[in-house]
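Customer escalation, tier 2.

The customer says the design service returned an amino acid string that "doesn't look like it belongs to this structure." They asked us to rerun it and document both sides in this ticket. The original structure tokens are below, unchanged.
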């Protein structure tokens, strides 16, 4: 079905999507999909259902872009997927409509800014690593205390599960499994 579909999201249960829903219906939405979930996660059943329901020629409407995604990169991925399927995005507050040339340009500008931001972050990380090395700091994972590794292997050899051995010694379970593999100790089923 094509037409104007809408998506409303609030982060926590004591908030209400009613205000967003009312604005979306006033904008002509024929069906509103909702989620009460953080925008950090893409595991949102309402959004998943909407994306499965939307058809070419339709429009996905949101009150604000941050209701669709909190991350610019993720937002661009969603919009690109929508465009590839022939579905436009309309944001009421930002007045962006990707069915228009100006709206499409706005998203290309957002994409360029996101790319620029990723590059700046990568450069800062690289500079920080170089500065730390220049100061003589050791980078990477700290060496495992051989005593803890030996203790973990002894516990496992005495029938303690690797997870319990890790918990008792303050290690990560994966570390115990890695030490077991290095020592040739088989995992028990």
């Amino acid at each position: 079905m094509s037409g104007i579909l809408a998506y409303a999201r609030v982060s926590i249960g004591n908030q209400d999507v009613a205000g967003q829903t009312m604005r979306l219906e006033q904008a002509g939405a024929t069906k509103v999909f909702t989620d009460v979930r953080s925008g950090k996660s893409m595991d949102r059943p309402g959004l998943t259902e909407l994306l499965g329901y939307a058809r070419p020629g339709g429009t996905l409407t949101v009150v604000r872009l941050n209701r669709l995604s909190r991350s610019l990169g993720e937002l661009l991925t969603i919009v690109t997927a929508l465009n590839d399927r022939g579905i436009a995005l309309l944001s009421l507050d930002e007045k962006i409509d990707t069915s228009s040339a100006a709206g499409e340009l706005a998203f290309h500008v957002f994409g360029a800014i996101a790319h620029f931001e990723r590059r700046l972050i990568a450069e800062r990380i690289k500079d920080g690593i170089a500065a730390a090395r220049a100061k003589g700091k050791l980078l990477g994972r700290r060496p495992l205390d051989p005593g803890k590794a030996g203790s973990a292997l002894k516990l496992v050899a005495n029938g303690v599960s690797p997870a319990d051995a890790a918990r008792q010694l303050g290690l990560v379970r994966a570390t115990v499994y890695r030490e077991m593999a290095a020592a040739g100790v088989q995992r028990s089923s």
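Tier 2 assessment: The sequence is consistent with the input. The chain has two domains: 4-99, 146-183. The first strand starts at residue 4 and ends at 10. Sent an explanation to the customer and offered a walkthrough call.
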